[in-house]
Design a protein that fits this description.
Length: about 260
């Protein structure tokens, strides 16, 4: 079972890397036009330079977190490598108190999918601009992915983390839709980003940059009438679903225990 799960996640990693290489992280159009897209390069700090304080901190964190290999936190990081819509819904299930799907929450699904096209576009611009290396490309250390999954990331720049941008954008949207669960949702979104550091596929600075990138994009999206209309439709849908849902997600006690300690 573990091998099958690892193979499935490796396939997702390969697909993600291929889309980045082709310059097409998502299909369709987001909420922001080219004119609406914020100049993220003016807002998000530049990637660290070799030898500077941020670079040194990144390498120290990478080395220190290799000791997590084989731990419960390592396993969660592997699970968090799935940044598909189903993967994101799975990650937020405990914080939200139910598992969303395309079938039971089509409006929420469509909203998050379209919104993350914008976060992917913004992340790609910064990746292309800085061409920053991933930590395992600088110093030796195991990562939570298979050799094939690791190899697929070799040509995809580190800064900022696309997975983190997508999960933080999703967390911001879900927190807007269910404000009573905002703290739990955003804490889980933060942990999702930190999973990239635990896994060893991103530097800590790349995760922090992605949080800022997604926040900038979310703020810009709120100026879109279409985004606001879709947000309200999703809010109504999610409220009804939460009011009638009686099935609690599984594995939440273990997740809570795993995230009770700082990752780094």
């Amino acid at each position: 079972m573990k091998r099958m799960a690892r193979l499935a996640i490796t396939s997702l990693t390969l697909m993600s890397a291929l889309m980045w290489a082709q310059g097409d992280g998502s299909h369709g159009s987001g909420y922001l036009t080219a004119a609406d897209m914020p100049d993220v390069a003016r807002i998000v700090p530049p990637a660290p330079s070799t030898g500077d304080a941020r670079f040194v901190a990144d390498m120290t964190i990478f080395r220190n977190t290799r000791s997590l290999e084989g731990s419960k936190r390592w396993s969660l990081a592997l699970s968090d490598d799935d940044v598909s819509l189903a993967g994101l819904f799975h990650a937020f299930r405990c914080a939200l108190g139910l598992t969303l799907t395309r079938e039971n929450a089509p409006n929420v699904a469509a909203l998050i999918k379209r919104a993350n096209i914008d976060s992917t576009t913004a992340s790609r611009r910064l990746k292309d601009l800085y061409q920053h290396k991933r930590p395992f490309q600088v110093v030796k250390g195991n990562v939570c992915l298979s050799p094939q999954g690791k190899a697929a990331l070799e040509s995809v720049p580190d800064y900022p983390s696309g997975h983190t941008a997508a999960s933080w954008e999703s967390g911001l949207i879900l927190a807007e839709l269910a404000p009573d669960a905002a703290s739990d949702l955003l804490a889980r979104a933060r942990a999702f980003g930190q999973s990239r550091v635990v896994c060893g596929v991103h530097n800590s600075s790349a995760v922090e940059a992605a949080w800022m990138t997604a926040t900038v994009i979310f703020a810009a999206q709120n100026a879109s009438p279409i985004f606001r209309a879709d947000l309200e439709a999703a809010r109504t849908e999610l409220a009804a679903l939460r009011a009638t849902s009686k099935t609690k997600p599984e594995g939440c006690a273990l997740e809570t225990e795993t995230l009770s300690s700082k990752a780094y």
